Structure prediction request, 170 residues.
Amino acid sequence: MSKEEKIKAIRKSILENTYPLIFDWRDYNREGNCYSYAIGSNFEDKDMEGYIYNLGTMSGLYPAKSIIEAKKAFVADMETIGIYARESSFEEQISIEKQEWKIAFFYDCFCEEGYYDFHFMRQDKDMQWSHKEFLRGPIRCWGNDNPKFYKTDLDFIAFYILKVLKEKIK
Prediction:
């Protein structure tokens, strides 16, 4: 399946959701990673060579070799699939009426070793945070605590408020 076909499948799947999303530990998205979970995509990409849910793959900005590049890659990925993303804060409230949701973005570049890693958490409709642990891992509820303090070897980068731009992806 080509990158363009994968992007079409992601767009179709995110249009089927009502945002903000509702936490369900049995979520349909068991084969995806934290990125697909955070944006609400149930498209399962089984192509590990050209895995679409690697940061920057959708927009062609892969790999991100710095925090600045990672932020640009994330926003460009969202733009590619028809999601508006703007940087936010923990305190800023989402608008349920506007179907917004919030994510927390973690990132680190291990450039000497030639790779990077990222992680996303999302704020669900009940205002609690949840995330998907690794590719086939479980979906966990983090609760109301600030995800900035989630224990990981990655650096907390930013909060983003997201909104599907339905008119851009039909």
Notes: Strands lie at 83-88, 101-110, 115-123, 129-132, 139-143, 155-164. The CA atoms of residues 27 and 141 lie 12 Å apart. The mean pLDDT is 89.
